[in-house]
Amino acid sequence: MRLVDEYLDKLYKNNNNKIILELKQEMREHLIESVNELKLQGLGEEEACKKAIERFDDGAEMKQELHNIIKELSLSLDTHKSKIKGTRRMLCFISIITFLISGLMWYYNNSLQKNRNDLGIAFNEEIRKLSEKYDMTNVDEYKLELERLLNEEKYSKIKAFRLHVADMEEGNTSLSSSGVKAQTVYEKELDDSNIPMYTSYWGYNGKDFLDKSGNIINPDIFSEYFFYEESKNLIGVSLLIGVFSLWGYFYIKV
Description:
alpha+beta, 2 domains, five-stranded antiparallel beta sheet, 14% strand
């Protein structure tokens, strides 16, 4: 059936679309069937092939129309494939960007937490040193010194502060305040009227320690952090978008 194959190869040269190849195979089977019928009528194989091709060519307009339809279908499929490839590239790009954003936000959020802890520990230590010099129930004795600390540049992020004192017996050495209620002896209030956008105030509960007279001291420190809650939420949202984009990239086939 060499003549049939050569004819079809010439008719559909350079077209390797899957659907086109399937149609080409169906046409080959149809031509071979015609060839076999002609051979039964006494024609040789080569003559039967030529005759079958001639019969097919008699419907030239139909053949051309079919060829045009197949060509348009091929172009449409190529366009469809191009759109799918573009979609996959976009999904890949989105997944990379969102994973980068989630990673950056995770790093930023962890940095804020570390800064909060470092600031809290440092200021807690300042209060502990102050308590070594004073009976912290007598606020007037150390108030100016405490406020001077709060106004230092390195503690500028501390926007609210509470100092709790459990008034123990003179010379107490225990950190257990069972039966004694701690009182707030000093408080720096947060200015609710001047809170910047995307800013959170994060508390650090300091460790208990004893003052000069044995009173139990506990500081509460509230510091200001920009974009903390938003960065935490953005981590989850970015990861979710990234996972779905990556799933879409692998799910969509060209």
